[in-house]
């Protein structure tokens, strides 16, 4: 089973860019038919899909976040990453990375605050 | 962007049967929305129970099943156990863009 681990700053200032990396072990980001997802969950609220990327580099974004999100793949490091620009308090959430929707990371809390 | 709707909360008795539903603001849910169902317990990441309407993973308890019912995706739990108390989310695809439902808090009481 593939394991995923999110990493990145737990605190980001308003208007800055949130950057997270997901490190994949037990499998390769460049093999198979998998797509690699970012999903978030504000404290006490529901899940929100953010974006995915295929091994080919093809991407798709949540329309409500598209203007602020960049997702990328680093096959040499077996990682994929998320950048979310111009963050506000509304972007405070637990951020999950996932392989498709089968294997999930444990999630990392990112708080947006000055 | 489409809105996916779920019952905010449901209660089931131990051993009982309950059906959770997942509707779409754009019309009937079909297999083309590739419905997923997730279970999430406090402090844990979501876990997929059902994918592509009715397919199960190796870890999905047999008491859970997925279907399409009355224009919605449905998750049926037959023979509820105390450990099934959790939040349940559905997920639908809209031409490659995915939308989660708001979640159903299931109480086993």
Quickly list its features.
heterodimer; A: 114 residues; mainly beta; 11 strands; B: 109 residues; seven-stranded mixed β-sheet; four-stranded antiparallel β-sheet
What can be said about this structure in brief?
Chain A has strands spanning 3-7, 11-12, 18-25, 35-41, 48-54, 59-61, 69-74, 79-84, 93-99, 103-104, 108-112.
Describe the 3D structure.
The complex is a heterodimer of chains A (114) and B (109). Chain A is mostly beta strands and 114 residues long. Chain A is 0% helix and 51% strand. Chain A is built from no helices and 11 strands. In chain A, strands 2, 4, 5, 6, 9, 10 and 11 form a 7-stranded mixed β-sheet that branches. A 4-stranded antiparallel β-sheet of chain A has the order 1-3-8-7, with no helix packed on it. In chain A, a hairpin with a 4-residue loop joins strand 5 and strand 6 (59-61). With 109 residues, chain B is an all-beta fold. Chain B contains no helices and 11 strands. Chain B has strands spanning 4-6, 9-12, 17-24, 36-40, 47-51, 55-56, 64-69, 72-78, 86-94, 97-100, 104-108. Chain B starts with a strand and ends with a strand. Chain A binds chain B through residues 39, 46-49, 52, 60-64, 96, 101-102, 104-107, and chain B through 1, 36, 38, 40, 45-48, 51, 57, 89, 91, 96-103.
Write the layout of secondary structure elements.
The complex is a heterodimer of chains A (114) and B (109).
Chain A: E1 3-7, E2 11-12, E3 18-25, E4 35-41, E5 48-54, E6 59-61, E7 69-74, E8 79-84, E9 93-99, E10 103-104, E11 108-112
Parallel strand pairs in A: 2-11
Antiparallel strand pairs in A: 1-3, 3-8, 4-5, 4-9, 5-6, 7-8, 9-10, 9-11
Chain B: E1 4-6, E2 9-12, E3 17-24, E4 36-40, E5 47-51, E6 55-56, E7 64-69, E8 72-78, E9 86-94, E10 97-100, E11 104-108
Parallel strand pairs in B: 2-11
Antiparallel strand pairs in B: 1-3, 3-8, 4-5, 4-9, 5-6, 7-8, 9-10, 9-11
Q: Which strand-content bin applies to the residues of chain A? A: over 45%
What's the β-strand tally of chain A?
A: 11
Overall outline of chain B: globular
| Poorly predicted ranges of chain B | none
Structural class by secondary-structure content of chain B: mainly beta
SSE order of chain A: EEEEEEEEEEE
The largest sheet of chain A is: 7 strands, mixed
Mean pLDDT of chain A: 96
Count of discrete alpha- or pi-helical segments spanning 4 or more residues of chain A: 0
| Radius of gyration of CA atoms of chain A, rounded to a whole number | 13 Å
Class of secondary structure makeup of chain A: mainly beta
């Amino acid at each position: 089973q593939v394991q995923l681990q999110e990493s990145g700053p737990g605190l980001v200032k308003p208007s800055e860019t949130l950057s997270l990396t997901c490190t994949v072990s037990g499998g390769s980001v460049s093999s198979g038919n998998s797509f690699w997802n970012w999903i978030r969950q504000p404290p006490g609220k529901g899940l929100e899909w953010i974006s995915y990327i295929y091994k080919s580099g093809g991407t798709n974004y949540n329309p409500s976040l598209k203007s602020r999100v960049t997702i990328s793949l680093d096959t040499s490091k077996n990682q994929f990453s998320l950048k979310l620009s111009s963050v506000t308090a509304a972007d405070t959430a637990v951020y999950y990375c996932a392989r498709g929707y089968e294997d999930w990371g444990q999630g990392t809390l990112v708080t947006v605050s000055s | 962007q489409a809105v996916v709707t779920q019952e905010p909360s449901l209660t089931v008795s131990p051993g009982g049967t309950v059906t959770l539903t997942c509707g779409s603001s754009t019309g009937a849910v079909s297999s083309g929305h590739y419905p997923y169902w997730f279970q999430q317990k406090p402090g844990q990441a979501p876990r997929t129970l059902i994918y592509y309407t009715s397919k199960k993973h190796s870890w999905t308890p047999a008491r859970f099943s997925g279907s399409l019912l009355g224009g919605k995706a449905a998750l049926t739990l037959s023979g509820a156990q105390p450990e099934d108390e959790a939040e349940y989310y559905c997920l639908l695809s809209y031409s490659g863009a995915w939308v989660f439902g708001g979640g159903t808090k299931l109480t086993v009481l």
